[in-house]
């Protein structure tokens, strides 16, 4: 099942280190099957507030997400981003298709909950 690295980039200082990070990240994704689905872009806020940008990177599965994030190649550039931005980053599994909203009612309690 596909898995995703999702970042809510609240602030980034667009200087030489972020530019270097952007030049180098694609090569770190390739060996793990990672590809950008969303990378910044215009966010249309419909409810509440959304400061910043959204980044979503798709991987074949959760193992590939962890492999990428923990790889020496990505770890070598990680500080270029973290030292120059504020972001929340999560890993999340996709859903099997077809999927209905009520499918989450069948999850076991240890698989998480909505609205903690």
Radius of gyration: 16 Å
Q: pLDDT average, as an integer?
A: 92
- What is the spatial order of strands in the main beta sheet? 2-3-1-4
- Total DSSP helices: 3
Question: What is the string of helix and strand elements?
Answer: EHEEHHE
Name the beta content range.
25-35%
What proportion of the residues is helical, as a percent range?
A: 25-40%
Biggest sheet layout: 4 strands, antiparallel
User: What's the number of extended β-strand segments?
Assistant: 4
- Structural class of the secondary elements? alpha+beta
Low-confidence spans: none
Q: Termini, distance in Å?
A: 25 Å
Principal-axes geometry comes out as globular
Which keywords apply here?
4-stranded antiparallel sheet; 116 residues; 3 helices; alpha+beta; 29% helix; globular
How is this structure best described in words?
Helix 1 (16-29) packs antiparallel against helix 3 (72-82). Strands 2-3-1-4 form a 4-stranded antiparallel β-sheet. It is globular and about 45 Å long. By secondary structure, the protein is an alpha+beta fold. The chain has helices at 16-29, 62-70, 72-82; strands at 3-12, 35-39, 53-59, 85-93.
